[in-house]
Automatic annotation (TrEMBL):
Organism annotation: Rhizophlyctis rosea
Record key words, sorted: cGMP, Hydrolase, Metal-binding
Single biological process term from Gene Ontology: signal transduction
Taxonomic classification: Eukaryota, Fungi, Fungi incertae sedis, Chytridiomycota, Chytridiomycota incertae sedis
Record carries keyword Nucleus: no
Gene3D superfamilies: 3'5'-cyclic nucleotide phosphodiesterase, catalytic domain
EC number(s) per entry: 3.1.4.-
Binding-site residues, Zn(2+) 2: D251
Cofactor(s) needed: a divalent metal cation
InterPro entries (alphabetical): HD/PDEase_dom, PDEase, PDEase_catalytic_dom, PDEase_catalytic_dom_sf, PDEase_CS
Homology family: Belongs to the cyclic nucleotide phosphodiesterase family.
Protein name, as recorded: Phosphodiesterase
Length: 458
């Protein structure tokens, strides 16, 4: 049925003429809270008792006498317009996803033995794009001459991440390789490093949140944390290479929809990785696909044994960013910390690298408010889009992603209080000098959002 036919049907049920252009139809889900799009995508509810939709009819040309009523009608009209807009966006996203699925079907599965998962994975559009970029060569100047105050600020969590173009962020990451002495130690050709970073950059999607600037933020925060805590002096060059490369690769080709969506929608990624951290596994796989190409393989001059070790630890760090593992990682790190963290123990050092990657990934609130606040809007935008798509597809939704249930303040108070502070306070027991440059800004952010929340509820 077309949307017009569905509308006609609903009009007939409500005994109003579907020719009347001033009739507004609103269809609510069984909870009575969410508006449903009137069209071909209404999820079926025929078989469930007590799961009926509620249809509300309004006359748009009704002229109310009192200002309060005018306001109410205008608000309702605006709500309808917003729903129409949302439905359009959702439809576009669904079409995009279908398009991607069909590309996979035609580009990969049709010509690939079904049991050959690795060649199947390599035919995914993202990985095809990686290959094309690897052949592009150099598109931006190889050497950026950043003034000394920039390279100094780069070592601090207060660094302003918003004022740089993509090519400049690539240059700043090159600066980190240089400063850590990794270029000489691992015999990395500068052009290759540049090509690797360009390639990684273009393998990030233009999501509201999970984009290349987020990748840069995470990498820069890791670099900043290492410097303010002085732990960079305790880590060897291989561990710094692991951290830098893991941060650069940690969200590669993120589709803007989280693991819960991948699993519930039974996407290609969930299928390939059997519902186990589909996104994080994919990020790591894209990273090592880039590194497989000789043009972009910055690890080419490592010995076989070193490569194996570096690869293992990079994968560990990227997989550790799945928040489903948060409790487990925190508990293990807590055990080490309570027994007195032992830098001589390889297992403890490896876990430390994973924890530093995790901290960096969720570190926006360590930054000054002007720098961090726009990220909250971006993340909510990404969440809301996912939640809208889930509703349209009849999939389960999470309350923290629902535009009708979450505000910026409520989201932040919960996340900072229950996730960030326990993590960073634990890390502060192992790494020195966290209080002033790292923990205090987080507490300040918590106070700010608590204030905002109080203002909202009063
Ligand atoms: Zn991330």
């Amino acid at each position: 049925m077309s949307a017009a036919e569905v509308r006609s049907l609903l009009c007939a049920a409500a005994d109003v003429s579907d020719q009347a252009r001033d009739v507004l139809l609103k269809l609510y889900d069984p909870t009575g809270e969410a508006l449903l799009p009137i069209g071909a995508n209404i999820p079926p509810n025929t078989n469930a008792d007590g799961e009926q939709y509620r249809l509300v009819i309004k006359r748009a040309n009704y002229v109310p006498q009192r200002p309060q009523e005018v306001k109410q009608v205008v608000e309702e009209l605006n709500a309808v317009a917003a729903v129409v807009q949302n439905v359009k966006q959702i439809k576009q996203r669904v079409d995009d996803i279908k398009q991607e699925a069909s590309e996979i079907q035609h580009g990969g599965l049709a010509h690939t033995p079904a049991d050959d998962i690795s060649s199947h994975a390599q035919t995914r559009p993202a990985i095809r794009r990686v290959r094309q970029v690897a052949n592009l060569g150099i598109e931006a100047p190889l050497v950026h001459n950043f003034p000394p105050e920039v390279t100094e600020n780069l070592k601090h969590p207060t660094f302003d991440v918003w004022q740089w173009e993509d090519s400049e962020m690539v240059g700043l990451v090159e600066q980190m390789f240089q400063e850590f002495g990794l270029i000489d130690e691992f015999n990395i050709e500068r052009e290759k490093l540049h090509r690797f970073l360009q390639c990684a950059r273009s393998s990030y999607n233009k999501n509201p949140f999970h984009n290349f600037r987020h990748c840069f933020c995470v990498t820069q925060m890791m670099y900043g944390l290492l410097h303010v805590t002085g732990v960079h002096e305790k880590l060897n060059k291989m561990e710094k290479l692991v951290l830098l490369t893991a941060c650069i690769g940690h969200d590669l080709d993120h589709p803007g929809f989280n693991n819960a969506y991948q699993i519930n929608a039974n996407t290609e990624l969930a299928l390939i990785y059997n519902d186990v951290s589909p996104l994080e596994n994919h990020h790591a796989a894209v990273l090592f696909t880039i590194l497989k190409s000789p043009e972009t393989n910055i690890l080419a001059n490592l010995s076989d044994a070193d490569y194996k070790e570096v690869r293992k630890q990079i994968i560990q760090c990227i997989l550790a960013t799945d928040m489903a593992k948060h409790g487990d990682i925190l508990a293990r790190f807590k055990q080490y910390s309570e027994a007195g963290f032992n830098f001589e123990d390889p297992a403890q050092r490896q876990l430390l690298l994973q924890v530093i990657t995790k901290c960096s990934d969720i570190s926006n609130e360590v930054r000054p408010k002007e720098v961090s606040e726009p990220w909250v809007d971006s993340l909510l935008e990404e969440f809301f889009t996912q939640s809208d798509v889930e509703k349209a597809q009849g999939l389960p939704t999470a309350p923290f992603m629902d535009r009708q249930k979450v505000t910026k303040a409520s989201a932040q108070v919960g996340f900072i209080g229950f996730v960030m502070i326990p993590l960073f306070e634990l890390v502060a027991k192992v790494l020195p000098n966290m209080e002033e440059p790292v923990i205090q800004p987080i507490r300040k952010a918590l106070d700010y959002y608590k204030g905002l929340l109080e203002k909202q509820s009063s």
